[in-house]
Amino acid sequence: MTASGMRVLNTLGRRKDPLETGPDGVVRIYFCGPTVYGPIHIGNARPYIVFSVLKRYLTRCGYAVKLVSNLTDVNDKIYDAARREGVPSGELAERFSAQYVADTDRLGLGRPDLEPKVTESMPEIVALIESLIAKGLAYAAAGDVYFRVRAFPAYGQLSNRPTDELAETDPGAGKESPLDFALWKGRKPDEDIWWESPWGPGRPGWHIECSAMAETALGREFEIHGGGIDLAFPHHENELAQSEGAHGGRMAKAWMHNEMLELGGDKMSKSDGNIALLRDVLDAWPAEAVIAFMLTRHYRSKLPYSDDELAEAERVCERFRNAFRTIDRALGAFGEATDAELAAALISGRVAFHAALDDDFNTPGGIAALFDLVRAINRACESAARPSRGQLQEVRRELSSLLDMLGLGRLADAAAGVPPEVARLVAEREDARSARDFARSDAARDALLELGYEVRDTPEGPQVTARS
User: Which residues, including other chains, have CB under 8 Å from residue 165's CB and lie 6 or more apart?
Assistant: First the structure.
């Protein structure tokens, strides 16, 4: 089954493929989350925003979506960072896991449906390694376990490189080939977290973790595997080999990779110190500006980061706020007739918006379609014959709804003078209601009441009022 007419550029095959649903009509999406050894930077937020908004769009179009993103909470980088701080590695990972959730919560896009951690997935990881050994695709050596790359002829298909160019840098004791990569790493004396296994004490390699967590959360085959383009090799190439080697068939029907953020012309990277922390960016700029910054460039385009770029994104947001202010002023002196040009612009804007997003999630094209609609709104509201009250309400509702698909629906509330935290909670409530998560919806409603606001559902959308 295809979903909403959307086509996405599948890294595997380098072609635009129709986005499929599962047999039950669900679109299952997995994207790789961070390794939690420090606060995340703005570049780490790009996949979070891209795939959260993709889920939001498909959900608003009527599709059931299950979004999963992992947290890697055991890793060489975590061990190293914990040693530098003089704290247990589990304590450090727990602290930065909580920091990641807190920072991304500030975006107001909701959370993935599941966020599995490596440390909570060990039985599934060990079982997957055992199945690969049983099939002759993996072997134990000196307390480690390696994937036998030469035994999987399709290796290299995702990154589209000759196999001999794909060797990993880790020499590894007992490796049969430089191409082979670790599934299990024997415990080193200075590693304070480890697990028993059939091959001795140790912990999993990086790649096997996501294969096991994705399968546990979404099944052996799912619709989209996403993440940054830097993960295509070796991480995703190795995931594909492990999962498809163990079970046959496809792991993911489509692989979507977002491009990287650049700071000063270089790739943003924590290891190089070339970063801007997400929490610092959100202290300086509204969440809507950060989201717009990401969406005004195609997800497969490199994205230069600077204050000038964020200022331009904030101007995009203000343009939409001003459109709502224009509508609200016109509602104070509305006309009697329907404006035919505005009615046509509303239809064409809606069609163009969906056509853009259905074409490989072209969010810049979607925003351009909304700008065309805003121009038509301004012309109609500035004309001598104002549109009717009903038409103005319909236009306001539609513009708000389309922006909400991009995670920017709060711009309508901000234009009406609603405080940012109240607008965030209203958006959270709407997101929860769309997902039929009524416990989360009720929690957002209760938080609004505590702030002195109540929300009422109307045909024009949720209306927020301050309690007297």
Answer: none
Q: Which of 69, 46, 60 is nearest to 3 (CA)?
A: 60
Helix (H) or strand (E) holding 16: strand 15-20
Its pTM stands at 0.89
- Residue found under tokens 């890697």: 72
pLDDT at 420: 64
212 vs 123: CA distance, rounded Å: 9
Those residues of the chain that have pLDDT short of 50 are 460
pLDDT for the residue numbered 466: 65
For the CA atoms of 124, 125, 126, 127, the dihedral, rounded to the nearest 10 degrees, stands at 50
Query: What's the pLDDT at 147?
Result: 97
Can you give the pLDDT at residue 431?
72
Kind and range of the H or E element at 432? helix 420-434
List, in order, residues 6 or more apart from 123 with CB less than 8 Å away. none
Cα(391)–Cα(17) distance, integer angstroms:
38
Residue 392 host element (H or E): helix 389-405
Residue 209's closest CA among 356, 422, 36? 36
Backbone φ and ψ of 11, nearest 5°: -55, -35
Model pLDDT, residue 459: 54
Q: How far apart are CA 363 and CA 49, in angstroms?
A: 12
Q: What's residue 73's pLDDT?
A: 97
**Cα–Cα distance between 63 and 81 in angstroms, integer?**
42
Rounded Cα distance between 252 and 31, Å, is 11
Query: DSSP assignment, residue 205?
Result: -
Q: Are strands 2-10 and 15-20 parallel, antiparallel or unpaired?
A: antiparallel
- Other CB atoms within 10 Å distance of the CB of residue 154: 11
Supply the pLDDT for residue 426. 74
Are 14 and 251 in contact by the 8 Å Cβ rule? The answer is no
